[in-house]
Amino acid sequence: MKRILNYPGSKWQHAQKIIHLMPQHKSYCEPFFGSGAVFFNKSKVTLETINDIDGRLINMFTQMRSWPYELAQLVELTPYSRKEYELSFVLSDDPLEDARRMLVRCWMAIGGKTNGPVGWRRNISWNGPYNTFEWNDLPNRIFDVAVRLKDAQIESKDAIQLINELDVDTLLYVDPPYVQSTYTAAHYKFEFDDNQHIALIHTLKKHDGYVLLSGYDSELYQDLLNDWYKIEYSTNIGITTQRKKTVNEVLWLNYRPEEQTSLNDFWQSVY
């Protein structure tokens, strides 16, 4: 599926690689849904739960599922403009209109950041990125999202609480906000401090089902996850070709993928 959101830390580049590492399962949960890159690219299973504590984000996906035609029409009539970006910070009492504003926020903010006013994402060169082309294609993508979300459970609560409520046979893909020591500026409306990361990892280690955990490498995670399998891979981050940079992301697993002698070799084999 094509990208539905610009969102910090989203895994659209690497979704298929992550999915290839997943064992077979009938129950699936993403406690930190974000842009949903992995969910929207994986096959449907019997029970699926998506969750994010950001209520505006969850409302946006709920409106996509419930009113795709109406939301697509609103987006189609929305110009790519600074004024629309500024309006996106104002909450609307109408859930459908607020979903439109949240889409504007994610697509028109520099870096897709939702933590505050970070600037309007505009083109300064004909050589990309092609912001308006992507925005004008968004109505078509909304219909694909609606179909994929049709049978999913949509939650909006504390991720740790949700994980504790899950059955042991639930496969978890967990992509929390990055450890704050690994980046220089806030990205999300709801960040995660070190104590929350520690609590999250302790909760994940008690989960008897399969877990895949994404993040940047850090001393905190190295200490707490030294007995988990670890895969490092490179990804590009940034706004334009000139300003993009390569960083190393990590995927931790509480299991070993079947018939793979080297997790890093396997990662490269499905690139």
What's this entry about, in short?
It is built from eleven helices and seven strands. It has 271 residues and is α/β, with parallel strands linked by helices.
Textual characterization of the structure:
This protein is α/β, with parallel strands linked by helices and 271 residues long. It has a single domain (15-269), classed as 3-Layer(aba) Sandwich (Rossmann fold). The protein is 38% helix and 15% strand. It has helices at 15-20, 37-41, 55-66, 68-76, 82-87, 95-108, 131-149, 159-165, 194-206, 219-224, 263-269, and strands at 27-30, 47-51, 153-155, 170-174, 211-216, 229-237, 245-253. Helix 3 packs across helix 4 and helix 3 packs across helix 6 (95-108). It is globular, with a radius of gyration of 18 Å.
Structure characteristics:
seven-stranded mixed sheet, globular, alpha/beta, about 270 residues, about 40% helix, Rossmann fold
